[in-house]
Hints:
Blueprint: H1 14-42, H2 47-69
Amino acid sequence: MTAGPRRDDAWSGMGTGWAISATLLGGMLAWGGVGYLIDRLLGTVHVFTGIGFVLGGAGGIYIVYLRYGRGDGGDGGA
Length: 78
């Protein structure tokens, strides 16, 4: 019996990669959808949809940074 995936296993980071991809895609789709609804309400042509996609992508990047990119803080602030 194995205790789980090893750190040197080629597939060990696959779950993290899927989680990051889903976070980015989910943010873009959610805020793009909100922008689409605003476009429909105001009668504009894909103005807020584009803004929503950009904001969703930026928000997704920020959430990925908060979750995976800050590190452990043991590098002395460098």
